[in-house]
Amino acid sequence: MAVSGGRADHGLPCIFDHDDGKHVMRKSIPAVTKRKIAQESRSICPFCGEDDVSTGQFHHIKPVAEGGTNSLKNLIYLCANCHSKVTQGQISQSEVLRVKGMLAAGEHPHSHNSVASNVIHADFTGGTNKGVVANKVEKVEIKTTRKSVSINPPVGAIGSSLPHKNYVKHLIDRYHEFKKIEVRQESMKYPIFYQQIKKRHGAKWDMIPLQLFDELVMYIQSKIDKTKHGRVQKSRGKKNYSEFEEYLEKGIIRLTKRPRAPIL
Ligand SMILES: [Zn+2]
């Protein structure tokens, strides 16, 4: 690939990443990817609302030096000013991931116009669930051959934001892992905890609104701490789980679909 002028796509002179002492060749971001990423942000900086496209840049969420790619999931459009805030750590990685999650779900912190899209919008009433389920489903996919209906979590639900969704799933798995030590394998009833969450929050865990994320997380964490194993671990001064921020920093969030070994 030709390297011209020593400048990368975002206009900053960093065609090489020096962070880790190694020189890593950047592959320029394909035009089609740039267009899609700019569209995702409606060409408005999602951090400050800057809409002057001449300041628009592209940020690799997982740095190229650390193996970050030019995939849609790894790129975010932002203004030059916010880009330097991100690289200097004034805007945290978890904030970047949170905002990326919103954008990927069709939401924008600084623009509330609906995006033109060809996904089907359908009203969804959550049956016995009252009020807490957002009433719009982003996409309804009906596979007639298999007679199965899959409904993507609505915009604004925990399931619509990858980092939040992965973290909650991580905690639920941790709870089951600990509970399994307490009860015999064969008497382990996985649906129970999901039902408890649903009963408490009025919706299936991934349909719970993002505003209730902290509350849900605190609830699951307290359930983990209350398991026999959780109490033992705690008494030994061991942590039962990572906090959301730590979880993000550990890079457990899979920005790509490549399978990874689970990290405690
Ligand atoms: Zn900005």
Uncertain segments of ≥5 residues (pLDDT<50)?
1-23, 114-149, 252-257
Q: What string gives the helices and strands in order?
A: EEHEEHHEEEEHHHHH
Class from secondary-structure proportions: alpha+beta
Integer average pLDDT: 76
**Strand order, biggest sheet?**
1-2
Which outline best applies?
elongated
Total domains: 3
Number of strands: 8
Textual characterization of the structure:
- With 264 residues, the chain is an alpha+beta fold.
- The protein folds into three domains: 16-104, DNA Binding (I), subunit A (Orthogonal Bundle); 122-151, no CATH class; 158-249, no CATH class.
- The chain is built from eight helices and eight strands.
- The protein has helices at residues 31-40, 80-87, 93-104, 162-182, 190-201, 213-226, 228-235, 244-249, and strands at 16-17, 24-25, 56-60, 75-79, 122-123, 136-137, 140-143, 148-151.
- Helix 4 packs parallel to helix 6.
- The model is unreliable at 1-23, 114-149 and 252-257 (pLDDT under 50).
- Residues 45, 47-48, 50, 78-79, 81-82 line the site of zinc ion.
Brief synopsis:
It contains 8 helices and 8 strands, in the order ββαββααββββααααα.
SSE layout and pairings?
Elements: E1 16-17, E2 24-25, H1 31-40, E3 56-60, E4 75-79, H2 80-87, H3 93-104, E5 122-123, E6 136-137, E7 140-143, E8 148-151, H4 162-182, H5 190-201, H6 213-226, H7 228-235, H8 244-249
Antiparallel strand pairs: 1-2, 3-4, 5-6, 7-8
The structure holds zinc ion.
